[in-house]
Amino acid sequence: MSVQQRPIRMKTLGKGPRKVLFVGGIHGDETEGAYTTDELPKAFLDANLADAVTLTILEDVNPDGRAARTRDNANGVDINRNFPANNFDQSNGGTPLSQPESQALSATIDRVQPNLILVMHSWAGKEFVNFDGPAQEVAERFADIAHLPVEASSEFAPTPGSLGSYTGRDRGIPILTVELLKGSDSAQDWERIRTALLQAIAG
Ligand SMILES: [Zn+2]
Fold first, then answer.
1. pLDDT for 154
2. Strand order of the sheet with strand 53-58?
3. Which of 37, 107, 140, 191 sits CB 3.0–4.6 Å from 24 for a disulfide?
4. Cα separation of 55 and 62, whole Å?
C-alpha cells in the first residue's frame, strides 16, 4: 500500500525460467506508460511467452503521485531516488527505502530475482531508451526495433538513489528505462514499442 493507502497492484503471468519485472510507472506525473501496461498481458500471452518467461507486472509504484499528478509520492519523496544505491544522497529527503512504495518495489525485486527489469517513464521534448548495468545490448536491440536512441544514464543527469543505480550498477541486474515522449499518443507508443518490448522480455 502507498502512503495514502492506495494499493500497489502486481500481476504475474507465465511460469517460465526467465524472470522479467515490468514497472508501469514510478513518477506520478509520467502516465504515458499506463496504456502499454494495460496492453502488455494480452500481448505477452498472444506471443506464447508463458512457458519461457515469468513476467511480473507492477502496474504503478506511485499511485498517490498519479492521483495528485506529482512526480513524488505523498510524502514529497521521489521514489526513484529512494533506493539504497552506492550513489544515494539526501537531496531528495529521507533515507534509503524510507517509503512504502520503494519498499514494495525492493521486496518484489528480492522475491522475483529478475533477469531483466523494464521501467516506463516519460520525458519532455525527447524520447529514448536508457539503461543501467549489463543491459547495453538489450537496450540497443530495443532501440533498433522501436526506432529510439539509446542514452546511458551518465550522459544526461545524476540519478542518486535511482532504481537503475541500485539494481543495474550496484547489483548487476540489467535494467531498461523507456522514456516516452511526454504528452504523446499512448496507443501509438504502444504500437511502436510493442515488438521491442516483447523481444526484450523473451530475451
Ligand atoms: Zn521519470
1. 64
2. 10-13, 53-58, 18-23, 116-123, 175-181, 128-132, 150-152
3. 37
4. 20
Query: What is the reported pLDDT for 107?
Result: 98
Q: How far is the CA of 111 from the centre of ligand 1 (A)?
A: 24
Residues of the chain below pLDDT 50: none
Separation of 58 CA from ligand 1 center, angstroms? 15
What is the whole-number distance in angstroms between the Cα of residue 15 and the centre of ligand 1?
30
The domain segmentation of the chain, as residue ranges, is: 1-23+30-122+140-168
Q: Is 102 strand, coil or helix?
A: helix
What percent of the chain shows pLDDT beyond 90? 93
What architecture does CATH give domain 1-23+30-122+140-168?
3-Layer(aba) Sandwich (3.40)
